[in-house]
Amino acid sequence: xxxxxxxAIGSVxxxxxxxxxxxxxxxxxxxxxxxxxxxxxxxxxATAIAALIAIRIAARPADAEHPYGHHKAEFFSAVxxxxxxxxxxxLILREAYLNLLHPVSLDLPVEGLIVNGGATVINALWAWVLxxxxxxxxxxxxxADGRHLFTDVVTSAGVALGLLVAIVTGWWxxxxxxxxxxxxxxxxxxxxxxxxxxxxLMDEAVPQKTLDAxxxxxxxxxxxxxxxxxxxxxxxGKATFxxxxxVVPGDMTVFDAHEICDRVEAVLKKEIQGSKITIHVEPExxxxxxxxxVLD
Length: 296
Description:
Alpha-lytic protease prodomain-like, four-stranded mixed beta sheet, 68% helix, 2 domains, Alpha-Beta Plaits, 10% strand, 296 residues, alpha+beta, 8 helices
């Protein structure tokens, strides 16, 4: 079992644990703000399960029906997560509105905050694990899940602060107001997850820093060629697809041209993890004088 799948399974169990703790905090207090926090944890569990399924699909090797692999499955999971976050935010806004019309005092608010604080600490630690390991493993689903949990941590802290003020002042209307603030923050988080995932589904190019590194490798390692042009990149999950045209002297043998390609591919695969490379070799009359200059 891969590390990515183990982390995804861990997210499911952590989500269930945190969900139980937060619903306990809501049951103790009757706070709509704590209810909103618990409702977001329900989404955490559902999306953790979706991420696990997507990661298992993305790990499948290429086949006849999917010759480029199943890498994009993780982006679908991240889009689903973003949509579910938005739905949860709308449900929270509804509850906040109803409680704004009829604010009530809370039962055992301090005890509820202590219980909810324990769940927040667990979420914070696991979010850090998911984001750091997800980036290292190049897993969009894990990173999206970790960012969502970080949002949950921030909103939980905001809820706690609002309820503390309500306890001190007796302004119980702060409870539904804090729930509304949580919902708005969740809406922003969900829309951001959807935007970033859609960029992957739309075959967005790699970041400029990575693109510059690719161009530098081709320039330095393609000695013997004339130039490289029409460089294109896209990313899908852990895979980075790179293709370009390599112009070589017209009298160069196929063997020598292939040696150059092998040399460039070897360095690209070493420096750009998960790279899938396609090189189209062309004779020098195809030179465009506008691509990547090859260093001698």
